[in-house]
From TrEMBL:
ABC transporter domain mapped to chain residues: 4-229
Protein family membership: Belongs to the ABC transporter superfamily.
InterPro entries: AAA+_ATPase, ABC_transporter-like_ATP-bd, ABC_transporter-like_CS, BCAA_Transport_ATP-bd_LivF, P-loop_NTPase
Name of a matching Pfam family: ABC_tran
Record PROSITE patterns: ABC_TRANSPORTER_1, ABC_TRANSPORTER_2
Keywords: Amino-acid transport, ATP-binding, Nucleotide-binding, Transport
Gene Ontology terms for molecular function: ATP binding
SUPFAM superfamilies per record: P-loop containing nucleoside triphosphate hydrolases (SSF52540)
Protein name, as recorded: Amino acid/amide ABC transporter ATP-binding protein 2, HAAT family (TC 3.A.1.4.-)
Length: 233
């Protein structure tokens, strides 16, 4: 069952069409990964979905509601959370205060601490003193406090060790298993495919693959060709 549906979406930057006709479906309780080489347009598409930038054309539905004309905060209130690339914590505030500050809508901090017990141990520490991985957990945790139906995550792995990325990936899988729809943009393709139900690959602004995550994981040469934009499936 699709909870987020992107239909023929076009997104421009500085008047140039960066995303051209993207169609993506994210199901409740599933991890959907969006892969592609640097500059393919993944971040631009996520920003168009969350409303950080307007889309030029196309339709975006969250559940049965059309949201593409709503402001970003209204999309967030409707149940769409976006963990943006390079999003950071409030370094001088404690972990607890970072969470409280994001708690406007009555989210449950205990649920975040259950997903990321590492944060419980650091609850009084200034967030700036947390490790890179813990800070990313806090960023994801803050997004969860809005009780999203869908979580968009853009490159949570930037600058983190592979073992930490694996830990974060497991948490996203757990989150999806609890019923959230997750759309994950990730450079570590095999790690992302390892937790994915469904996968898309973008090349030069267009979707060149939509299918099973496991099928792509099993076919490294296909993945490589898709990244290079040499093929389309
Ligand atoms: N403000 C902008 N004005 C014009 N072009 C832009 C702007 N921002 C990004 N672009 C271009 O849009 C294209 C897509 O960028 P985007 O960041 O969406 O790709 P990406 O797939 O997320 O890549 P990465 O993995 O490097 O983040 C790139 O060619 C980039 O140079």
């Amino acid at each position: 069952m699709s909870i987020l549906s992107i239909q023929d979406v076009w997104v421009e930057r500085s008047g140039l069409p960066i995303v051209r006709g993207a169609t993506v479906s994210v199901a409740k309780g599933q991890v959907t990964v969006l892969l592609g080489a640097n500059g393919a347009g993944k971040t631009t598409l996520l920003e168009g979905i969350s409303g950080a930038i307007p889309i030029a054309r196309g339709a975006i539905s969250l559940g049965s509601a059309r949201i593409e004309k709503l402001r970003a905060w209204r999309r967030a209130r409707a149940g769409l959370a976006h963990v943006e690339q390079n999003r950071t914590v409030f370094r001088d505030l404690s972990t607890a205060d970072n969470l409280w500050a994001a708690c406007r809508t009555g989210g449950n901090i205990d649920e975040v601490l259950e997903l990321f017990p590492e944060l419980r141990k650091q609850i009084s520490a200034p967030a700036g003193l947390l490790s890179g991985g813990e800070q990313q957990m806090l960023v994801v945790g803050r997004a969860l406090l809005g009780k999203p139906k869908v979580l968009l995550v853009d490159e949570m792995s930037l600058g983190l060790a592979p073992i930490v990325v694996e830990r974060l990936a497991r948490a996203l899988r757990q989150l999806a298993d609890s019923g959230v729809g997750v759309l994950l943009v990730e450079q570590f393709a095999s790690l992302a495919l390892g937790i994915a139900d469904r996968a898309y690959v973008m090349a030069k602004g267009e979707m060149v693959y939509a299918g099973d995550g496991s099928a792509l994981l099993a076919d490294e040469s296909l993945l490589r060709a898709l990244y290079l934009g040499d093929t389309r499936v």
